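quick q for whoever's on today - can somebody do inverse folding on this one?? i tried earlier but teh output was garbage lol. tokens:
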């Protein structure tokens, strides 16, 4: 069950490391460093700090900054698994798209701050 190349125990059928193998002497030092940075980062931020950042990005998205809209939607809804190519086949398709955009533009704006309770 030991692969002669590095001496670590591997399953001969799958080639995967066996349970209990930590992946090398000392583990992954870079992952430990990143984990420490992430913990400090999360300790330093408050929910109010995060809210301010989200509102700023939302304002930029509403002002037409496409990178902000993409970031906001990716974080809120998850990244799109695939991109769709839209093909316009009929003039009616264009009119329907314009109708939908008109409806969206008439929607009341989303308040920055929720109403006080």
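ok took a stab at it. sequence:
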């Amino acid at each position: 069950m030991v692969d002669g190349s590095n001496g670590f125990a591997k399953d001969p059928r799958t080639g995967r490391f066996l349970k209990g193998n930590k992946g090398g002497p000392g583990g992954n030092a870079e992952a430990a460093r990143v984990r420490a940075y992430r913990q400090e980062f999360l300790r330093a931020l408050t929910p109010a700090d995060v809210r301010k950042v989200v509102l700023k990005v939302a304002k930029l998205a509403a002002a037409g900054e496409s990178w902000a809209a993409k970031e906001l939607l990716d974080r809120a809804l998850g990244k799109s698994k695939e991109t769709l190519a839209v093909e316009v086949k009929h003039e009616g398709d264009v009119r329907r798209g314009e109708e939908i955009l008109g409806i969206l533009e008439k929607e009341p704006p989303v308040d920055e701050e929720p109403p006080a309770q």
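fwiw DSSP finds four helices and no strands in the chain. also Residues 2 and 76 are 46 Å apart (CA to CA). so keep that in mind when u check it
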